[in-house]
Amino acid sequence: MAVLITDTCINCGACIDECPVEAIVDEDDNPTGEEIYYVYPDKCVECVGHHDEPACATACPTEGCIVWDEVKESPEHRDDITEEQRTSHEPVVE
After folding, report:
1. Helix H or strand E encompassing 84
2. What is the pTM (predicted TM-score) of this model?
3. Nearest by Cα to 48 from 17, 23, 84, 12
4. Where do the structural domains in the chain lie, given as residue ranges?
5. How far is residue 16's CA from residue 73's CA, in Å, rounded to a whole number?
6. How many of the other CB atoms lie within 10 Å of CB of 17?
7. Phi and psi angles of residue 68, each rounded to the nearest 5 degrees, phi first
8. 89 conformational bin, left if phi > 0, alpha if psi -120 to 50, beta if neither
9. What is the C-alpha to C-alpha distance for residues 94 and 71, in angstroms, rounded to an integer?
10. What is the pLDDT of residues 2-56, one digit of tens each?
11. What pLDDT, on the 0 to 100 scale, is given for residue 75?
12. CA-to-CA distance for 39 and 1, rounded, in angstroms?
């Protein structure tokens, strides 16, 4: 995975509209069953080649809702994000 939406998500939809690769789904389609939006790890590219930073986090009105996560199946990811930032789930946008 590249970014993770935390349980502070208010389900506003701002992130879905901004994702250039349609990696985000709403709570109705969240495969975990949680009542929050979900980022598919095999689709998220952290906006590499699209934006300077993940557009979902920039659009999100909830501070700290979208955080860095460990890279797993992600097709692309940012090389400038440290392993510590990812494992501590540091917010993408401060």
Report:
1. helix 83-87
2. 0.84
3. 23
4. 1-94
5. 20
6. 11
7. -70, 145
8. left
9. 20
10. 899 999 999 999 999 999 999 999 999 999 999 999 999 889 999 999 999 999 9
11. 67
12. 8
How far apart CA 94 and CA 67 sit, in angstroms, is 10
Name the residue type at position 70.
E
Domain 1-94, CATH number (from 3.50.50.60, 2.30.110.10, 3.30.70.20, 3.40.630.190): 3.30.70.20
Question: How many CA atoms does the CB half-sphere of 63 hold within 13 Å?
Answer: 1
Specify the DSSP element, H or E, that contains 25.
strand 24-25
Beta bridge partners of 67: 4, 91
Tokens at 40, concatenated: 């598919």
